[in-house]
Design goal:
Blueprint: E1 2-5, E2 8-11, H1 21-33, H2 38-45, H3 49-61, H4 72-87, E3 91-95, H5 101-119, E4 125-128, H6 132-140, E5 151-154, H7 168-179, E6 182-183, H8 195-203, H9 205-211, E7 217-222, H10 235-244, E8 251-253, E9 256-258, E10 264-265, H11 275-280, E11 283-287, H12 294-302, E12 308-312, H13 313-322
Parallel strand pairs: 3-12, 4-5, 4-7, 5-6, 7-11, 11-12
Antiparallel strand pairs: 1-2, 8-9, 9-10
Length: about 325
Amino acid sequence: MGALLGGVLVSDNSGRTQHDDDILVLVSEMYYIQEKTQKDIADNLGLSRPAVSRLLQTARDRGIVSVSIVDPSERLKKLEAELTQAFGLKGCRLCPSGEDHAILRARLGYRGAELLMTNMEPGDVIGIGAGSTVYETVRALRESRDYPGLRIVPLSGGGLGIDGRPQINQVVHMAAHRLNAESVYLNAPLYIGEDSVARLLMEDASIRQCTGLWDQLGNALIGIGRGNIVDTQDPYFIAALEAVGQSRVAAAVCGWFVDREGNAIRGKNTTSVSFDQLKAARNVFAIAGGKRKARAILSALRGKFATHLVTDEDVAREVLFMIS
């Protein structure tokens, strides 16, 4: 038996079935738009489920229904290309955004590790900045003995560690272990209150062993902080921020503060790689994400402190919107 739809007999047996476009559109709308099951459609139209299935297949064969698959990676590649062109970057890697900050940091770290591993050369000096995304990047590094003569150095002194954040020398040690490299430590605080103490520290031979390598950087991993947002209990950071004027600060890079246009705001007694040394490195990978950091990331990009950016889709769209 069959059913009469739109004046056309639709057979539900294995014999030849006559269709017209109206019937195919009707069945397709019920299935793809109204999200009815094939059983529901069959019951509503007095057909068997195999007949409904044949109608849906015919609709696809005739081009009435087309199925397109949007590959998220293609969407991200387009945004990567736009950011690369907009800021003159060597490269950009994006990951999907998300509400879970721990998962987002892990995604960023994985992509940052990929970039570093594909850009290392034997004998490189690799600088490690502070921050949770840099830590996740180092965690994501695969163990390798393919690059002899590597030296891993911190790019700044350490904080007090009162926020539970990874201490920078520990992250350097982890990176050196994974890459079979020599580690060079910097046993000095990031911010030093007294000028005389700062001078003595910077003249110390063990300190100079590290800081002397900042002129030889091949690759550097850095984070980007929201410099005008105090999300730390470190009194020395807070004092340094207040000294330069919190309202002027848009980002923090390697302990230095940056204004909205990407200009460095010179503070005092910061034990950190200089921006000139950073810009002289072959590659600087800035790894930061989360939409709340979009303005800070834009400021760092304007300052040309990085050759590569690793961030997430939401940040990419927000940054491109802000410069449009």
